[in-house]
Design brief:
The chain is mainly alpha-helical. Helix content is about 45%, strand content about 0%. The chain has three helices and no strands. Helix 1 crosses helix 2. It is extended and about 50 Å long. The relative contact order is 0.09.
């Protein structure tokens, strides 16, 4: 919970951490946030999870291949990806 509160302080610019410490939080956040959320849910809704939290998968999520610039857009518009959903 302390980690989540620290992230909130960083987000609202109310943090007293140094830039080096904030960079460390940024590197650790993707690994720690899922466990924080699971802990919060386990504490607030124990009937959903029983007495023990579900084991955290050690297999990282791997996204599928990204569409190329000239591939048709997956939204079905018929336009090229770069002219549709890939436009930023």
């Amino acid at each position: 919970m302390i980690f989540m509160l620290a992230l909130q302080d960083i987000n609202t610019c109310a943090s007293k951490f140094t830039e080096k410490e904030i960079d460390q939080f940024d590197r650790e956040a993707p690994d720690l946030i899922p466990n924080c959320v699971a802990t919060i849910l386990t504490q607030s809704r124990p009937e959903l999870y029983g007495s023990e939290p579900a084991p955290h998968s050690e297999i990282p999520f791997k996204a599928g291949p990204r569409p190329g610039r000239n591939d048709p857009c997956s939204c079905g518009s018929g336009r090229k990806y770069k002219q549709c959903c890939g436009r930023n």
